[in-house]
C-alpha cells in the first residue's frame, strides 16, 4: 500500500519516469476518450463536480485510463488517496489500510478514496474485508479490473459499487495522445523535435490496439532508436524504427477471461450467419492470441451438430477431421485445417432441428414421469421375463416388406410425441421426405375400421 498523495497537487511524475507515466493526464480536461463517462454533463464529471462520490469499479482493457481517472477523482475532490495492489497485498495489509483510512476520517473528517488495482485478483475473503468500511463510509472504494466484474467480484461488493465500463481508445484518440507527447516540452518529447509522419503516427496508433500506455512506450522506444548516433538536430522516426520497436503485434486476448468467451461467441455466430470472412477473422484473432486449437476444434464439432445438423451430413465429419489434424500436426500447421473447417461450416446449409429435438427430449425427461420402455421392445433373456410379457408383440422390422413396422416405441405417456422436425435445408429435405414415406407405410399397416367402428 502507498499514499500517492494527500494534500499535494503533484502526481509525482519525474523526468526519468517512463513517458507514459510523465504524460499521465492530471485533469479531466486532459483525458482523451471515455466521453460517455467524463464528457460534459456525463455521470462521472457531474459526480466529481458535485463532490458526491460513491464506491465504483472501473472495468476496461489495459491502458484506457482506469488508474488515471481514479487519481483525478481524488485530486479534484480533495480526498485522501490510498493505492493498494491486489497483486502484492493480503489481509494484513488490508487491515493496515483500513486503519489509516479510519484515522483520516476521525481526525480530519475527509473522505478517503481507496484505489484497488486489479481487484479481480482478490479472493472472496479478501474482498469481504472491505465491506464493513465501504458500508460505514470510512472509505470510497474504486476498483480497477480488466476482467468481467460479474464473474470476479463478489456480489456483496457489486451491490454497493457502481460498475463503469471504459472502452478501448480509438486510433484517432491514440493519435491525439501521441501528438501531445511529441509537443509537450515539460513532460513529453517536445524539446527533442521529434518528426513523426502521419502514416507512421497512424500505424503506431493502430498497433497500440486501444492502449495508450503501449502507444507511448512504443513512441519512446522508437525515439531512442532514431536518436542513436544523432547527438544534435531533429529526430526523424522512420517506418524502420517503428518496425524495430513494435516487432510483432500481440492481440488483446485472455484465454481465461471474458475476451475468450466473447471471441468464441463471435466465431460461432459468424459461422451460424454463413459469413466465412468474419469466421476466419475471429478464428485468427483467437489463434494468434494464443488460444488452444483443441478448444476451437471442440467448439466446431459442437457447431456442426447444433447449427448444421443433418442439413449437411459432411459437416460433423469435417469438424472431426479438423480436430484430428490439430492433434496430429499441432501448431502452427493445424491453423489451416481449422480455417478450412470454419469456411465449410460457414457455407454449409443450416438447421437447428436436431438441437431443438434434443432440447425437447431433455425437457420431457426432466419434466415428465420417466416411464419404463414398453414391454414389447424389452429383451427377455430369462423365462421369468418372458412370463411377465417382455418382448411380447414385438414386430421385427426386417420381416416387413419395407422394413418398417407400425409399432409404438415411446412410453405410453409420450406416444405420438414428435421431437425431430426436419427443415427444407440441404439433406434434411430428403430426410423430411423419407420420414413422410415411413409414416405413410405405417399408416397402411394399421387395420381399417370394423363395421361396428363405422356404426
Verbal overview:
The protein is built from 22 helices and eight strands. With 455 residues, the chain is α/β, with parallel strands linked by helices. It folds into four domains: 2-165, P-loop containing nucleotide triphosphate hydrolases (Rossmann fold, 3-Layer(aba) Sandwich); 172-246, Helicase, Ruva Protein, domain 3; 258-347, Up-down Bundle (Zinc Finger, Delta Prime, domain 3); 373-445, post-AAA+ oligomerization domain-like (Orthogonal Bundle). The radius of gyration is 33 Å and the shape is elongated.
In round numbers, the mean pLDDT is 85
Largest sheet: 6 strands, mixed
**CATH secondary-structure class of the largest domain:** Alpha Beta
The class by helix and strand makeup works out as alpha/beta
* CATH topology annotation of the largest domain: Rossmann fold
Strand content: 5-15%
Q: How many β strands by DSSP?
A: 8
Compute the gyration radius: what is it?
33 Å
Total discrete domains = 4
Helical content, roughly? Answer: 40-55%
Estimate the global geometry from the Cα principal axes: elongated
Helix count from the secondary structure assignment = 22
N-to-C span: 93 Å
CATH architecture of the largest domain: 3-Layer(aba) Sandwich
**What is the chain-wise order of helices and strands?**
EHHHEHEHEHHEHHEHEHHEHHHHHHHHHH
Major sheet strand order: 1-3-4-5-2-6
Amino acid at each position: 500500500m502507498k499514499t500517492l498523495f494527500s494534500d499535494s497537487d503533484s502526481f509525482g511524475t519525474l523526468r526519468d519516469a517512463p513517458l507514459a507515466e510523465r504524460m499521465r493526464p492530471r485533469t479531466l480536461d486532459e483525458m482523451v476518450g471515455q466521453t460517455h463517462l467524463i464528457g460534459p454533463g456525463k455521470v462521472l464529471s457531474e459526480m466529481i463536480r458535485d463532490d458526491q462520490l460513491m464506491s465504483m469499479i472501473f472495468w476496461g482493457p489495459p491502458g484506457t485510463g482506469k488508474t488515471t481517472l481514479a487519481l483525478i477523482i481524488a485530486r479534484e475532490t480533495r480526498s485522501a488517496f490510498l493505492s493498494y495492489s491486489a497483486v502484492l497485498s493480503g489481509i494484513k495489509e488490508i487491515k493496515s489500510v483500513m486503519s489509516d483510512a479510519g484515522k483520516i476520517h476521525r481526525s480530519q473528517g475527509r473522505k478517503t478514496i481507496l484505489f484497488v488495482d486489479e481487484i479481480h485478483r482478490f479472493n472472496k475473503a479478501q474482498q469481504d474485508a472491505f465491506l464493513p468500511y465501504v458500508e460505514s463510509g470510512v472509505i470510497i472504494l474504486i476498483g480497477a479490473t480488466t476482467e468481467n466484474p460479474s464473474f470476479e467480484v463478489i456480489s456483496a461488493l457489486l451491490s454497493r459499487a457502481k460498475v463503469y465500463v471504459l472502452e478501448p481508445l480509438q486510433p484517432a484518440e491514440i493519435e491525439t495522445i501521441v501528438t501531445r507527447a511529441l509537443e509537450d516540452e515539460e513532460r513529453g518529447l517536445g524539446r527533442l523535435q521529434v518528426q513523426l509522419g502521419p502514416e507512421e503516427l497512424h500505424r503506431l496508433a493502430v498497433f497500440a490496439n486501444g492502449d495508450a500506455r503501449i502507444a507511448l512506450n512504443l513512441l519512446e522506444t522508437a525515439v531512442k532508436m532514431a536518436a542513436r548516433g544523432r547527438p544534435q538536430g531533429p529526430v526523424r522516426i522512420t517506418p524502420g524504427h517503428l518496425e524495430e520497436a513494435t516487432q510483432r503485434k500481440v492481440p488483446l486476448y485472455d484465454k481465461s477471461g471474458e475476451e475468450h468467451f466473447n471471441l468464441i461467441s463471435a466465431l460461432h455466430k459468424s459461422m451460424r450467419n454463413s459469413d466465412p470472412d468474419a469466421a476466419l477473422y475471429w478464428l485468427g484473432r483467437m489463434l494468434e492470441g494464443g488460444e488452444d486449437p483443441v478448444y476451437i476444434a471442440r467448439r466446431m464439432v459442437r457447431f456442426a451438430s447444433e447449427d448444421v445438423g443433418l442439413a449437411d451430413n459432411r459437416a460433423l465429419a469435417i469438424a472431426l477431421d479438423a480436430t484430428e489434424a490439430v492433434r496430429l500436426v499441432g501448431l502452427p500447421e493445424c491453423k489451416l485445417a481449422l480455417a478450412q473447417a470454419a469456411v465449410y461450416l460457414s457455407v454449409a446449409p443450416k438447421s437447428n432441428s436436431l438441437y431443438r429435438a434434443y432440447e425437447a427430449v431433455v425437457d420431457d425427461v426432466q419434466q415428465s414421469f420417466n416411464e419404463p420402455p414398453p414391454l414389447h421392445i424389452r429383451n427377455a433373456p430369462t423365462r421369468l421375463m418372458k412370463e411377465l410379457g417382455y418382448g411380447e408383440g414385438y414386430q421385427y422390422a426386417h420381416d416387413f416388406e419395407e422394413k418398417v413396422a407400425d409399432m409404438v416405441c415411446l412410453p405410453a405417456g409420450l406416444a405420438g410425441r414428435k421431437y425431430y422436425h426436419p427443415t427444407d435445408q440441404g439433406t434434411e429435405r430428403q430426410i423430411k421426405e423419407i420420414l413422410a414415406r415411413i409414416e405413410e407405410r405405417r399408416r397402411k399397416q394399421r387395420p381399417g375400421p370394423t363395421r361396428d367402428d363405422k356404426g
